[in-house]
Design brief:
Helix 11 runs antiparallel to helix 12. The protein has 29 helices and 10 strands. The chain is mainly α and about 625 residues long. The relative contact order is 0.10. Strand 1 and strand 2 form a beta hairpin.
């Protein structure tokens, strides 16, 4: 036993590292057992971003600039994958396998980055391990790659380069005048992995979604360090600038098409975003959302961490004279925590202000990149910030316990003080980690998949198989019996992504950057429905990312379950426009009561379905 304990203490850091990697594999077990029966968040993943990977992978290393499969020809600039490096997975593997590997990479990267970063900042193995596991469980969207889960690893790389450069300078203090450091020493062999990490992060994340924020923060850091060096008359640190340059260059290389569209719009097309009409939001509601749980796609459910900060502040401020001797020694840790919280507070204020009436009106009237670019995604930095804050707070409490038993004035009571403080601190750390972790687990994609494993077929939810319904669309393709590229289709009550996934060429689709001209064309198709419902009309005219046939009767329901036996009584589409666009078939999960009146006929009387399918599909011929 003593040998095992000795071995544990000797290799404690590696033990926790190995355990975390094992957990990242265990978290994949439910998905592996369920296979394509796994429950995946389909909003903004299966219905949209997944196709940016599939299409890019399909036409990789070709000069094609228009993808014909969706929206009657979508420009490649409108289907830029958020994580370009992940495209290689979709080249090599099937879509589901590539998606699952992406999920596993995210688990491993999230844990490794957070664990190594917190070890560097706090030197506390167990604390770093606990927070890294919590961060790994956050409900990340695999289609967004390492945008959020890779941030701790990026910070670790930049911090390591900077600290190693400082260490090199500490060994050579011969120069006291402002100058640039020795470049070859910065590019030593030990620094290469850190630069590789920076390239890896940039190639696996999105410039538009979060890269701009990372560049901004890194630029501020580089400027501040340069100013401090000049003020102190010492060598200027090059590593922050080199890190910034590597990150920027990688983003430029992986986003050439998008950058071309922004800088030279006359050579591409006018985006539909130019017609977007933004609506102002309530300041207090948006600030509360960002500060308490996090915004959409970047939730960290961190409320308990804020209460932990309050508790630590109370402990620090209420310390007696003797206790203050050792509490003051931990002031730096608490000060670092305060700085992180201040950063979080400022970002949340910016998020709320950005969506207020003044900025919204300014963006609506300005147009251009000021209108179409969402600066509020700087909030995607917050989950990492909350984890760093938790690391500092846990470290503060742990240091209180350790240093609180050392002063000679406590010699008589050293054992009892040690026991009480150790018990209290461990209870607090376990309680906060447990509450935080369970809260995240309840919102994690693991929860529904674990429930499905336990309940089997009794657990009713839309999974990968049911969403794409390959068996049903295979029946439809055989019944139609002509090459899919010869005609176009649209869908009613089914996400167009399902038809596109199964090889059909669609007039409808989901894109956050497509030609304004096509938006106007598609509006002609569904103008009759738009006139009947203000919500549907405003949603399409003022936003328009979803070029879907949205009926006035069903409003914002995009998928009709088979058990509903849905009926659309008065579908008002421009059939002549459909014919003009070579649309020969309408796939509908609802029975269209006025089909004959609109010049439509059923391919077969019974809908296409299987026993356990999520929807049944009526196929209407446009004639």
């Amino acid at each position: 036993m003593n040998k095992l304990l000795s071995l544990y203490h000797t290799h404690k850091k590696n033990c926790y590292l190995g355990l975390g990697l094992i957990l990242s594999c265990l978290f994949m077990v439910p998905f592996l057992l369920l296979g394509t029966g796994s429950i995946i968040t389909y909003h903004d993943q299966l219905d949209g971003e997944l196709f940016s990977y599939l299409l890019t992978a399909r036409y990789l290393f070709t000069d094609i600039r228009i993808y014909p499969e969706i929206m009657n020809g979508l420009p490649a600039a409108g289907a830029v994958p958020p994580a370009p490096l992940f495209v290689l997975l979709y080249v090599i593997c099937s879509p589901f396998t590539a998606f699952m590997i992406s999920q596993w990479i995210i688990y491993m990267t999230a844990f490794l980055g957070t664990y190594m970063l917190l070890i560097k900042l706090t030197e506390k193995e167990f604390i770093s391990f606990s927070i890294a596991v919590v961060f790994m469980l956050l409900p990340f969207y695999p289609v967004y790659g390492l945008c959020i889960p890779g941030q701790p690893l990026l910070i670790y790389a930049v911090h390591s380069l900077f600290s190693s450069e400082i260490s090199l300078k500490d060994t050579d203090k011969s120069s006291h005048s402002p100058s640039f450091g020795n470049i070859p020493r910065i590019f030593c062999r030990s620094s290469f992995p850190c630069y590789l990490i920076i390239v890896f992060y940039a190639a696996s994340s999105s410039l538009v979604l979060v890269g701009f924020a990372c560049l901004f923060i890194l630029g501020i850091f580089a400027l501040s360090e340069t100013y401090r060096a000049l003020h102190a008359k010492r060598q200027i640190s090059l590593s922050p600038w080199l890190s910034f340059a590597v990150l920027l260059i990688t983003y430029i290389i992986t986003n050439l098409g998008l950058i071309r569209q922004v800088l030279f719009p006359e050579t591409t097309y006018i985006s539909h975003k130019s017609e977007m009409l933004l609506s102002p939001q309530n300041f207090s509601d948006y600030f509360k959302e960002a500060f308490t749980t996090g915004i959409s796609y970047a939730q960290s459910y961190h409320t308990v961490v804020f209460f932990l900060f309050v508790f630590c502040l109370i402990v620090f401020c209420s310390a007696g004279k003797k206790e203050s001797l050792y509490l003051q020694s931990n002031r730096r840790t608490l000060l670092n925590a305060f700085r992180i919280l201040l950063f979080i507070f400022i970002v949340c204020l910016f998020y709320a202000f950005y969506h207020g009436s003044y900025i919204t009106e300014l963006r609506n009237t300005s147009g251009g990149i000021l209108k179409t670019f969402n600066l509020d995604r700087i909030c995607w930095l917050l989950p990492t910030a909350w984890c760093i804050l938790a690391g500092y707070l846990f470290s503060f409490l742990a240091d209180i316990w350790k240093t609180g038993t050392e002063p000679a004035s406590y010699a008589k009571h050293s054992v009892s003080v040690n026991y009480r403080k150790a018990l209290l601190i461990h209870v607090i750390i376990f309680a906060v980690s447990g509450i935080w972790g369970i809260t995240i687990l309840l919102h994690s994609p693991l929860r529904p998949n674990l429930s499905k494993l336990l309940k089997g077929s009794d657990y009713y939810a839309l999974d990968w198989d049911k969403f794409f319904a390959e068996d049903i669309f295979s029946q439809i393709n055989m019944a139609i019996g002509e090459p899919q590229e010869n005609y176009r289709v649209i869908s009613v009550g089914i996400y167009p992504a399902a038809a596109a996934y199964n090889g059909f060429y669609c007039l409808d689709g989901y894109s956050n950057n497509y030609p304004l001209e096509y938006k106007h064309t598609f509006r002609e198709i569904m103008e009759g429905e738009l006139k009947k419902n203000d919500y549907v009309r405003d949603f399409f005219d003022n936003w328009g990312n979803r070029c879907y046939i949205t009926t006035a009767e069903q409003a914002n329901y995009y998928t009709f379950e088979k058990k509903w036996n849905s009926v659309v009584y008065d579908l008002d589409l421009n059939i002549d426009k459909l014919k003009e666009l070579n649309c020969k078939y309408i796939f509908s999960a609802a029975y269209l009561m006025n089909a004959e009146e609109k010049g439509l006929s059923l391919l077969q009387e019974a809908p296409f379905e299987t026993e356990d399918s999520w929807y049944h599909i009526y196929v209407y011929i446009v004639y």
